[in-house]
Design a protein that fits this description.
By secondary structure, the chain is α/β, with parallel strands linked by helices. The chain has two domains: about 30-115, 3-Layer(aba) Sandwich (Rossmann fold); about 140-265, Rossmann fold, CATH 3.40.50. The chain is built from ten helices and eleven strands. It has helices at about 5-25, 45-60, 75-85, 105-110, 125-130, 140-150, 170-180, 195-200, 245-250, 265-285, and strands at about 5, 35-40, 60-70, 90-95, 160-165, 185-190, 205-210, 225-230, 235, 240, 255. The strands form three sheets. It has a six-stranded parallel β-sheet. It has a three-stranded parallel β-sheet with strand order 3-2-4, with helices on both faces. A hairpin with a 5-residue loop joins strand 9 (about 235) and strand 10. Helix 2 packs across helix 10 and helix 6 (about 140-150) crosses helix 10 (about 265-285). The relative contact order is 0.17. It binds nicotinamide-adenine-dinucleotide. Nicotinamide-adenine-dinucleotide binds near residues 172, 189 and 233. It catalyses: (6R)-5,10-methylene-5,6,7,8-tetrahydrofolate + NADP(+) = (6R)-5,10-methenyltetrahydrofolate + NADPH; (6R)-5,10-methenyltetrahydrofolate + H2O = (6R)-10-formyltetrahydrofolate + H(+). Keywords: Amino-acid biosynthesis, Histidine biosynthesis, Hydrolase, Methionine biosynthesis, Multifunctional enzyme, NADP, One-carbon metabolism, Oxidoreductase, Purine biosynthesis. One of its GO terms (biological process) is purine nucleotide biosynthetic process.
Length: about 280
């Protein structure tokens, strides 16, 4: 029976530290601020955005929401990003995905000033991550939160076999770099991977970020492995579930994250923490 990684409790600890840091910065006349840009009415995105806004306000971080209709043009969004880049009260800019089809989200992401790129998606920040540069720069919040969980639960990385399922720029790719920088042996799988189960059974650490409910179950896991479930899937019953069949997997894994209560709360806590990092770096270097 696996130890359950308590993302909620760890997120709470991080949030407490973040609000203390905000109070300290306030005394120096620095008021961290985040802007979230959203286009359209995707209900999940609206919920995520509202949750981020509420959490920021609770921790003392100024939060502004820039909401645009589904038919917004790329130029309108670029003009908004330009304004936010120049706005001294804003330290962090996040563009909520998915964007409507007429928007090339890469162009929008590239327009965010690297100093305010709280999602770590600007190629300059991604480049620093892949080059393993030892300077201050933002890293995608879900991967950074996962690394924090692994550290907190003393999971050895050096020389360990890690399999990541999911190749997205927001989750899989930054994780690949972070784990590679930590000297793990990393394999990345996607939709075209053949014989996925044979591969996952070799993993000391298995990270699943495919967005496919119950893609992985006990039979796909090496006994005693650490299993990190990034997936968030809403079933037709309304129930929230991950990419891992938690009930069977917890019998075989050594450590496992639940959904909800695992990676999700860590992502928001890391977003807040990194907003404060950006404010600190911008004002103090
Ligand atoms: P994405 O759709 O951009 O990428 C999915 C990846 O999974 C692709 O690389 C694809 O090749 C791979 N994939 C899909 N089906 C597969 C299969 N059957 N076998 C192997 N690989 C497969 O998704 P994303 O934005 O990276 O998100 C992935 C999941 O993680 C989603 O459920 C999303 O909601 C969730 N998510 C959660 C958090 C969090 O904070 N918990 C943050 C970001 C994303």
């Amino acid at each position: 029976m696996a130890t359950i990684i308590d993302g909620r409790s760890l997120a709470k600890t991080i949030n407490t530290q973040t609000s203390k840091r905000v109070a300290k910065l306030n005394q120096q006349g620095i008021h961290p601020g985040i802007a979230v840009v959203i286009a359209g009415d995707d209900s999940a995105s609206l919920i995520y955005t509202r949750n981020k806004h509420k959490k920021a306000m609770k921790l003392g971080i100024n939060s502004v929401l820039k909401k645009y209709p589904f038919n917004v043009s790329q130029d309108e969004l670029l003009a908004e990003i330009d304004k936010l880049n120049k706005d001294d009260s804003i330290d962090a800019i996040l563009v909520q995905q998915p964007m409507p089809p007429q928007i090339d989200s890469r162009i929008i992401t590239n327009a965010i000033s690297p100093e305010k790129d709280v999602d770590g998606l600007n190629p300059l920040n991604l480049g620093k991550l892949f080059a393993n540069q030892n300077t201050n720069y933002p890293i995608a919040c879900t991967p950074r939160g996962i690394m924090r969980m692994l550290e907190e639960y003393n999971v050895k990385l050096k020389g360990q076999n890690v399999v990541i399922i999911g190749r997205s720029i927001l989750v899989g790719k930054p994780l690949l770099a972070l784990l590679n920088n930590a000297d793990a042996t990393v394999t990345m799988a996607g939709r075209s991977t053949t014989n996925l189960s044979r591969l996952t059974q070799t993993a000391d650490i298995l990270i699943v970020a495919a967005g496919v409910p119950h893609l992985i179950s006990a039979k796909d896991i090496k006994a005693g492995a650490t299993v990190i479930d990034v997936g968030i899937n809403r079933l037709s019953t309304g129930k929230l579930t991950g990419d891992v069949d938690f009930d069977s997997a917890k019998e075989k894994a050594g450590l496992i994250t639940p959904v909800p209560g695992g990676v999700g709360p860590m992502t928001i806590a890391t977003l807040m923490e990194q907003t404060v990092d950006l404010a600190q770096w911008r004002h103090h270097g």
